[in-house]
Amino acid sequence: MAGLYLHVPFCPQKCHYCDFFSRPPAVDELAEWPRLLQRNLQQIAQQQTPCLETIFFGGGTPSLLTPAQISEILNCCRNLFPVSPEAEISLEANPGSLSGQTLGGYLDAGINRLSLGIQSFDDDCLQLLGRRHNATEAIQAFRAARTAGFANISVDLIFALPGQTATDLEQEIGQLLDLAPDHVGIYGLSIEAGTPMERLVVSGQVTETPEEAYAENYLLLAQRLESAEFEHYEISNFARPGFRCSHNQAYWQRRTCLAAGAGAHGFDSRDSGRRYAIPQDLAHYSESLAANQDPAVCLEEFNRQQAMAETIYLALRTRDGLDSSAFERQFGSLPEDAFPDAFRRLEPQLRHVKNRWFFDTDSWLLYDHLISHFL
What we know:
The chain is α/β, with parallel strands linked by helices.
């Protein structure tokens, strides 16, 4: 069983905080992209054809592709790979690029999970972030998706925005809960190098949110969403029962995820694991495929020790945590025996209940620091 990630590296304009690979499409690039993806998928299928449990269109703005193009790509997937009848098939979408007609078309094409990049319900914040939609359009897009028939909708929300108060965030949470999404992803604003947001911070036009306020915002979101019966199943993700994102869970469980499209990242779980990426170069991507050459490059080959470490710290991102028995079956050692120093140092933060190790919500705020003991 495996997942498949399909990258669509096009956006009408770059958001001010974004450092993902995307750019405005040149003439005919959007029309050509499905053909390139299909050629890439044919190459992958020559090497392995696992059953696909999840397919995820990410970007960029995948909703720039038409329903007919999405259908064409999914038909190619089904022709090349066995696809589970219950496969989760997700599409990331910008609220400003959707209409009732396109939403119905995506559903008919086979998309059964919609991930809406709303980010904020405050028009001033949306303008600061460089988003192309306003709050009213975001709410309308969500409701149109429900009307079209989408029964699994995720919403992304950015917190720790410059100048955002606890009252402001409470209002954002209230508007989010009024929509009643099935899944919520929360992301603290990070200032990435080379972005317009970094330039605003450096010039003094924007003040970065202090760490203390960041932590308070995160804990407020966690408390309010859990009170609304969302399960806080991963550091940044909340779901109603039965609506966890299966595709993302595969990443945290180190399961194979195939990848196609310039800028895509994939993972091969065979042996101790191999992580790879397709360079962020559209010309190289097209030329490699035309020459029937694999455009992907290896980022990291894991040895057994590295695989054990990554298995541990990825599991600790999740509420399920690390199953000691499953770890022992896979590696022939209990995790605390394989990394005794790390477990001793983390004793105040790590909890151990019914053969599982996990962090609580407060410790997730220190996740990057805590997992350094396994690196």
